[in-house]
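Narrative summary of target 7.
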Amino acid sequence: MGKFGLADEALVSIWVCRKCKARNRAGAEKCRKCGSRYMRVKRKEARVKK
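Modeled conformation, tokenized:
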């Protein structure tokens, strides 16, 4: 991804709520904002608009 490995590791260890799009700490069981358990890991690669 970038040229700073430590920063890249911190960014991909974030979990994102699929309901409200809030960023949560790594390994979170539920969202800190809405309480939903529908979570995903932050994408590792940047998505390109077409």
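Residues 5-41 form one domain.
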